[in-house]
Write a structure and sequence with these properties.
single chain, alpha+beta, Beta-Lactamase, six-stranded antiparallel sheet, about 45% helix, globular
């Protein structure tokens, strides 16, 4: 890594985390529209699990989920942490054959992830705050058309996350006005 590049990475990460916090969606209550998107993703791709994952400083938190009882994992275990490092989708057709994930506790132990596909959720046009991802417990192939569909659904997620965030911000302002 070139000298000074660590500082740039740290600034980018700080800006990304600040963007995530401005949205006021971390630890938010469930939202029916977001739940509908992950349910449609699971059904549409024929997988057991779909998540809207937000990558915070030390954890990955699930804003919406289907097929997984966990509400969060540590960031070190998060496949989505790799996904947000680029603007491209991450497809892992067989986790046991991918050196980045073969020893991951989510692969070697419960829930025994074998397939992962994630598309970044991009806020404010540049900050990758999380992913729409689908997971299965057996390896599978994933075609280019499916990748395009996942990316499109991730864009839909961001529209809904922005709507959800704006509702929360408005409620917060109204509460402040009533208190003040």
């Amino acid at each position: 890594m070139a000298e000074g590049s660590t500082g740039i990475v740290n600034q980018r990460e700080a800006a990304r985390l600040e963007c995530l916090r401005r949205l006021l969606v971390l630890d938010a209550p469930q939202d029916d529209r977001l739940d509908t998107i992950v349910s449609a993703a699971a059904r549409g791709f024929g997988v057991k699990t779909a998540l809207i994952s937000l990558v915070d400083q030390h954890r990955q938190w699930f804003l919406a989920r289907v097929g997984l009882s966990l509400t969060e994992t540590s960031r070190e275990m998060a496949f989505c942490d790799c996904t947000i490092r680029t603007s491209l989708p991450l497809i892992v057709e067989n986790t046991l054959e991918d050196s980045r994930f073969a020893k991951n506790p989510l692969v070697t132990g419960a829930p025994h992830v074998r397939f992962y596909a994630g598309a970044p959720l991009i806020a404010e046009g540049r900050h990758r705050i999380g992913t729409l991802c689908i997971i299965d417990f057996e390896p599978r192939n994933f075609a280019d058309a499916q990748i395009s569909q996942l990316v499109g659904m991730a864009k839909l997620c961001m529209l809904e996350i922005n709507r959800f965030a704006n509702q929360r911000k408005l409620a917060q302002r109204l509460k402040e006005m009533k208190a003040g």
